[in-house]
Amino acid sequence: MGSVREIERKYSVDPGFMLPRLAQVPGVSTARTRRAVTLEAVYHDTEDLRLARNRITLRRRTGGPDAGWHLKLPVAPGARDEIQRPLGGDGGPVPADLVDLVTAYLRGAELRPVARLVTLRTARRLRDDAGVDLAEVVDDQVSATILGSAAGAQKWREIEVELGAGAPALLDDVERVLLAAGAGRSASASKLAQVLGPALAEAPGPDVPAAAAKLRRRTPAGTVIRAYLIAQVETLLATDPRVRLDAPDAVHRMRVACRRTRSTLRTFAPFFPAELVAHLDGELRDLAGALSGARDAEVQIAYFTERLAELPAELVRGDAAAVISGHLAADQSAAREEALAMLRSARYLQLLEDLIALVNAPLTGSARKPAEKILPGLLHDADRRLTRKVARAGDLPIGLERDELLHSARKQAKRLRYAAEAVGPVYGSSAAAFARLAESMQELLGTHQDATIARGLLREWGVRAQEAGDPSAFTLGVLLGLEEHRARTAERDFFDLWPAASARRHRRWFR
């Protein structure tokens, strides 16, 4: 059993609700009723309902075609990823890999059964003329109890519409028919949220608070920056289980969230206690570092494969592709183990606790001043740091020291970009344009740094191949020369861009 993307909508209905003819929905040819089934599900959560508070459900369901353990992770409003595992023995523990996937939310808290739901379900499959299942509409009569509570059973009826192979617009068409028949959009995100309603209301809110809806120049500066940090901490938590599942792009997204958070804390350090900034800076650096190996090896394998394919046949000697993949694949496997070890460490869980506390803490000191009074100065400081780094690099001859300074300038351009993103809701198009400019500088310097790293790898592999008498040493040398050219071209292009990029007109909005 694996993972499925679930896109659905829920509707509350009265006991006497009559389901309308669903074949009248545009594009639907038939609405076949399936035999009613009884489903029993026991939901697991912590004492303080950490999963439910963060819109996550974990259950063991019997009955129906998908009996088993189900973990549902939100991905967007109305959409969740459902990870499924076999039932196992009756009364057995939650599968260890599912517990691992919610580690970031549990942070050491124990799981226990919190609710039992028994559902009589009648389903209707909506099919088109070709017999394709477009969607499924289920009519559920639910009886639910909170385990360990003296409260009696709750009973209700609801309609769920889950998208199959149909287009998303089909959900709108079905909704119009249901609403016209007397159904109403459900106020609860899930059955569990409905049965736990009073308990959820008394529990703390989600780990990460909602950001302020409207940000203006008179908004406290700390509120503006907190909104950006909230988005990054939400991304960290949401991508954690997907990194553990080795989902595409998950490591990259988590690493970028680490870097954005770290950069924001550095640029806007006056808003936070100095000791906390120093602590989080180190922890986020090490987390991003643990994630980097797996991502970097993945990117390098794809890049070198492409470069080899572009070489004329007469420049390819031996099996250079095998040499390169052999080195990088081993690095990639080891790096993934390193990343998972970090995510399973007490240190990582404490970092999450600290970040959650950070975005929930009250504003103090200069963070309470209006954004227009303090944010421009902090951006100006970050911009001046970039200017100084570029000037120092430009005064040096081509070589290792200059490469290192350009790498430092790249990191500062990235911080400047993230700072502009953070204040974007207040400064609008001016900040957005400046963020794009900083990104252009970052990308040129990033190409230079990528080529510099590639040169080092190719030099090492080439020497080893030469010492072993492997003919691929020649091809690795050719690639080394190409990377030297790529590094110097990117360096030249950056310094060509710099006079225009450093012009005052791009900075009037924060001066």
Word description of this protein:
This protein has 511 residues and is α+β, with helices and mostly antiparallel strands. It folds into 2 domains: 3-202, Beta Barrel (Hypothetical Protein Pfu-838710-001), CATH 2.40.320.10; 221-510, CHAD domain (Alpha solenoid). 54% of the residues lie in helices and 17% in strands. The chain has 14 helices and 10 strands. The chain has helices spanning 50-53, 96-101, 103-106, 169-180, 191-195, 197-202, 221-244, 250-267, 274-310, 320-343, 346-360, 371-394, 400-467, 472-501, and strands at residues 3-13, 30-33, 37-45, 57-62, 68-76, 79-85, 112-127, 133-146, 154-163, 184-185. The protein has an 8-stranded antiparallel β-barrel with strand order 1-6-5-4-3-7-8-9. Helix 7 runs antiparallel to helix 8, helix 8 (250-267) packs across helix 9 (274-310) and helix 9 (274-310) packs across helix 11. The longest helix has 68 residues, at 400-467.
